[in-house]
Amino acid sequence: xxxxxxxxxxxxxxxxxxxxxxxxxxxxxxxxxxxxxxxxxxxxxxxxxxxxxxxxxxxxxxxxxxxxxxxxxxxxxxxxxxxxxxxxxxxxxxxxxxxxxxxxxxxxxxxxxxxxxxxxxxxxxxxxxxxxxxxxxxxxxxxxxxxxxxxxxxxxxxxxxxxxxxxxxxxxxxxxxxxxxxxxxxxxxxxxxxxxxxxxxxxxxxxxxxxxxxxxxxxxxxxxxxxxxxxxxxxxxxxxxxxxxxxxxxxxxxxxxxxxxxxxxxxxxxxxxxxxxxxxxxxxxxxxxxxxxxxxxxxxxxxxxxxxxxxxxxxxxxxxxxxxxxxxxxxxxxxxxxxxxx
Length: 342
What we know:
By secondary structure, the chain is of the alpha+beta class. It has helices at 33-41, 64-69, 83-86, 88-101, 119-131, 225-228, 232-235, 255-264, 269-298, and strands at 24-29, 45-47, 55-58, 75-76, 112-114, 138-142, 152-154, 166-170, 177-178, 181-194, 197-209, 252-254, 313-321, 327-333.
């Protein structure tokens, strides 16, 4: 349900459970029990009506109208306008603009085409590669998809049509592997304000592993999603998925483990993390004008400084690391999963 939604269920219990608490949290719009548990651990009051809550936590995006409704003391965990980097097609379009102007600074995303707009460009590139005897693999993603739904690999782009609504990218086929498995990194970024832009990067995060030993894409393994994709929602259905709680083992591990592994193999984790920090900053600089415009439209005459901004947001950014230890931005998630089932 959108945070803008109103239902009779929502109105059933509007009072805070702890009337003496100084901070109240509306968790009516989130399915994640961990949000409630954290609120209770901090001794926050739990509310189910918007007008009584200090913080509203929602799994869904918000509109400028919803942002405008908030009282000065209230906070909500999304910025209007974040779709400009959180939708795959918008991210590709906006980073593409920056690449054309600052090619050396914005070289951290794979070559990307947004269909149907870039269909002709994509097919010209594909046919040019064929003429030169080069066989490339492409990864196709729904423009506004999530959790790995609809993602597939292609080597024969004749299967695509000009009516498809997809984001197509060069498939990065030379990953850094750990225990023979491909992985990506889920890093967490907290945006406190957009005017000025104030951002915190969490120093840990997740390594999300595929569940079949990696091999370069061929006709025989192209459809093996357990080999080529790292999404938890896909790999959890594989019999080889390891959901152990040890953050140094299994199909999900901590980035702290990656640091230990890299140091043991004489790789520089600090150099990698510095490059990731640059990717975060440059990506959010792309988003900032859109966030600022949407925020000022919603709340004209107010400042969105961290002390008074009614919006904040936690983003999950997915980073691929190739065998040369070069990080690449895959996508930005404005509602990263907070599930604790694995």
